[in-house]
Amino acid sequence: MKAEPTFLSATAAVDAAAVAPLPNSRKVFVEGSRPDIRVPMREIRQSDTPAAFGAEPNPPVYVYDTSGPYTDPAARIDIRSGLECPRAPWIAERGDTEVLSGPSSAYGVERLHDAKLAELRFNLQRKPRRAREGRNVSQMHYARQGIITPEMEFIALRENQHRAEYLASLVEAGPTGKRMAALLGRQHPGMNFGASIPNEITPEFVRSEVARGRAVIPANINHPEVEPMIIGRNFLVKVNANIGNSAVTSSIGEEVEKMTWATRWGADTVMDLSTGKHIHETREWIIRNSPVPIGTVPIYQALEKVNGKAEDLTWEIYRDTLIEQAEQGVDYFTIHAGVLLRYVPMTANRMTGIVSRGGSIMAKWCLAHHKESFLYTHFEDICEIMKAYDVSFSLGDGLRPGSIYDANDEAQLAELRTLGELTKIAWKHDVQVMIEGPGHVPLHLIKENMDLQLEQCHEAPFYTLGPLTTDIAPGYDHITSGIGAATIGWYGTAMLCYVTPKEHLGLPDKADVKDGIITYKLAAHAADLAKGHPGAQIRDNALSKARFEFRWEDQFNLGLDPDKAREFHDETLPKESAKVAHFCSMCGPHFCSMKITQEVREYAAREGIADNAALQQGMEVKAVEFVKRGAELYHKQ
Amino acid sequence: MKAEPTFLSATAAVDAAAVAPLPNSRKVFVEGSRPDIRVPMREIRQSDTPAAFGAEPNPPVYVYDTSGPYTDPAARIDIRSGLECPRAPWIAERGDTEVLSGPSSAYGVERLHDAKLAELRFNLQRKPRRAREGRNVSQMHYARQGIITPEMEFIALRENQHRAEYLASLVEAGPTGKRMAALLGRQHPGMNFGASIPNEITPEFVRSEVARGRAVIPANINHPEVEPMIIGRNFLVKVNANIGNSAVTSSIGEEVEKMTWATRWGADTVMDLSTGKHIHETREWIIRNSPVPIGTVPIYQALEKVNGKAEDLTWEIYRDTLIEQAEQGVDYFTIHAGVLLRYVPMTANRMTGIVSRGGSIMAKWCLAHHKESFLYTHFEDICEIMKAYDVSFSLGDGLRPGSIYDANDEAQLAELRTLGELTKIAWKHDVQVMIEGPGHVPLHLIKENMDLQLEQCHEAPFYTLGPLTTDIAPGYDHITSGIGAATIGWYGTAMLCYVTPKEHLGLPDKADVKDGIITYKLAAHAADLAKGHPGAQIRDNALSKARFEFRWEDQFNLGLDPDKAREFHDETLPKESAKVAHFCSMCGPHFCSMKITQEVREYAAREGIADNAALQQGMEVKAVEFVKRGAELYHKQ
């Protein structure tokens, strides 16, 4: 075995590019009902409107911040020590857990005592926790008892993004602020296909959604570093980023870097899909340094333990792996328990068979043993483990289609029905569940996936990969799938699993990770806008205003990727002066539609046509009156 | 004035990267009813299935080819001479046109005799054509008289892509071919929102669609170099690429290169939006070398002629510009004739006012003169020009929304109604019309745009820019808009105007042009699949089969961008041997879901479960029986 002594020294401090605050941004905290509930948000400052456009101050904009302490200059980052643990007191004070003397999985013990791993091992002083005998520590269990946990309150504050206070403070600031609140706060009514999104997310609403299974809070008691977040159709659409090494390439250091990089750009959760060497150690480093929930597919590691021979897998090995990972703090497990023996032959006539790794492992096992999968037969045993650590199920779609050809076929839909049955069983144990979905689906068949999932899985949150809407663009599958992701997010999917440009071709590097995340963040946001998620349009409105007023820096900074926007702008017009110029490279100085519009507006104002009162009140009724009056004026000509 | 003497020598031969055939591809021609109807298609050869998967030959795949003679090794490319003119005999033999002694626009004459322009001028020996007195040379006029032109027959063959013959020849080749035809030819029934897409496109169908205005064939009689194509809801969804210099940057040579580059990657039409110096000369070079229709916005050039002062524009200057460009061979004109005086004040309370350049020019003119726009008052005069050269209208959406905030507002929808009225007037003259659309629209409001357009513009083809589904991702607006484009294409838009990653930030370079086109090609294809366009799924199926069988080279070559796919693959596994390896970098040699699937399939076959007869006949009914039988087998266990 090759130890990697350079790893620790080289990356003890995280990549500087991944920890600097984003431009013109600072991390602010909204405090909850107790001082240790401190919800981070990113405040993006704006410059004033240029004199030519009215010289008014523009308020900062608050956006959801997944980057954790990394973008907080006040935080000390040392990945050898891991992050601070905001959840630690909440977990401890509930008094329903006990601290173990050490790992209780056989494999965990073995790795801990393997001297050869010393240099690779994260030096975790803390011992794992587990529920006391007979206790259930899942957020769903608390929710069903009517308990609002600090995690739930944290989430309510986080989802609201400070919006009510923000708009109220603008209105109180006087006429300009009032006008600004009307402009920024205006939003198209959405179309949400039966979702129940309240105007304001309360802690009680979070609790009720978790209690009825419509949302999950992935928050293992052994991951106290996490900043709580929620996945559900009535909340902001979330994005997951996959990382992980393979036998072919990549090291622990790279994976930790990918995780911090992914959360910097907006990943709400990260899945560690490592399949190569040192899976256990890689995972420990990632979790200890991750402010977002971590998901895994435990069967990958179990398979490594039997040297890649699927038929040698046993329930005992799998069970030990679940405990091993639960005690490290994995927040959700993808478990392909719906791959039933009788579904396997349904895939034989497919174009691309079984493309899910977990699905194909279990299919092979089922056929080799002529038995139902141990994930299915031991499902209630798995529930017992999940509730002892609060690991959420992500019920895997082992039979998802791997091509447009195979979309929505019998194998896929049969498995979905089984996932619905398993959801009911998990809920009987108060264990949190989300359901994974396709894959490759043409645009017009996406809705059927969402509708069947809602119906058959009883509104458990849907967590989809893409779907890719065509197979003909390898190298651009972040886009073929981003189209499907925005669409299924609009229809009701709660979390979108990103796809990078390298999908089907190779392992993503940092640039691919970023491309995948930004694509999925914009897809998730397009879905939020379409659903009419309250306040979602504020950022669009602010950015559009900045664009119209030629506030280039604000336009860059309000975007999902300020660095790239600035770089693109500077390629054409690199001079600093151009960033305040009232024209841009597309049209040149004599030919700017926005400049002309401004003249139109001034002209209209001069002629008494533009009624600023209508504008200030931001009311559509007024706008309609204004338009009528304007039209009459002109008709008189 | 700075002449550009290096231009001609440096680019007399076009960039080598833009003229090489794509990998494993060759240009083939399908001949029509006469030998001079030769329809180009791209044939992509495939390798045999590896022995492990059955060692069968894989047939070539035929795809729509927009690249013109540039990818034909048999063609001699010399951009100083321009392309061959396949349409020349068709135009001449109709006997309804006359060859003029020279340009009939004042500006055309002026430029021709300006000695300073000698070095920049394309040396066109050919004189312009115009309809004989009293004649109408539009494809719509012919169509309405029941005439099927060679252009229409060319288009019918082109749209079918050889599919019926292709599948028939496979079936005739024996059992393997039959099975292959069933596999490749299988397709999900689509959902097309009332489109009328026949299984086979006949020349008569093309004629009837053009006659009723549901499709346009942009084909100026002065652009005989064009390979005819059609834009309509019942045909393949098309993609337009914008190029053009501005006062700030870019030269003639670059624009010609962008045009050949754009068509190489699939642009069905190209708009030359130049606004800088030498607009006239740039356009001549582009048209003479373009195998695809060229569109322009004549008001841009008219504005240059009055030194950028919108209020100085006159009908006479605009008219002269239309004739100048029509005699150069522009195939469609964007004309913002729907910007009425009374609509202008409707934009005063917008977030981003009027963002269309043409729209803002006309709005300014209307306000300055307190008169209705000359584009509107002289609309029938414009029709007279259009029908004398067969230039198609692209009725511009001068009041399209420039932000999510402004989407679907009164200004936008009022203009759309006027465009519908103008459509009727143009049709009265047998002049072809398409309608331009937004812009920035959240996902859930896109359908309203399409529905209103179909209703109010009487099914004239819709030609949309995006729409962008959110404003928060500058630098990624090819994707924010690709989502909207796929969606509106599915709903019925006939042509999608691309957006590049530089949108809102700078002028696109060649890399951006390619990113924009590939994004829009995949969006258009996703729309074709969703509409159930006959045969659209063949390429997806072939690529998926190649992917499943680890035919890496075939997977690359069947994709929209073989170069990028290969580059991405080689970044992770650069060795040539890896391209035939039965695993890939994502999972490594011991851990491949496709390998496991293959084992599942072999296992099922060994156990007598997989019924190859079902597979060979490719019939779903059989597959269902098979699945049932498989399930029963297992239930017996």
From TrEMBL, chains A, B:
Function description: Catalyzes the synthesis of the hydroxymethylpyrimidine phosphate (HMP-P) moiety of thiamine from aminoimidazole ribotide (AIR) in a radical S-adenosyl-L-methionine (SAM)-dependent reaction.
Enzyme Commission no: 4.1.99.17
Gene3D superfamilies in the cross-refs: 6.10.250.620, Radical SAM ThiC family, central domain
Domain ThiC-associated: start-end pairs: 21-98
Keyword 4Fe-4S: yes
Cofactor: [4Fe-4S] cluster
Binding site for [4Fe-4S] cluster: 584, 587, 592
Keyword rRNA-binding: no
Protein name: Phosphomethylpyrimidine synthase
Binding site for Zn(2+): 440, 504
Stored InterPro entries: ThiC, ThiC-associated_dom, ThiC/Bza_core_dom, ThiC/BzaA/B
Family: Belongs to the ThiC family.
Binding site for substrate: 242, 271, 300, 336, 356-358, 397-400, 436, 463
The protein's assembly and partners: Homodimer.
Organism: Massilia terrae
Keywords noted in UniProt: 4Fe-4S, Iron, Iron-sulfur, Lyase, Metal-binding, S-adenosyl-L-methionine, Thiamine biosynthesis, Zinc
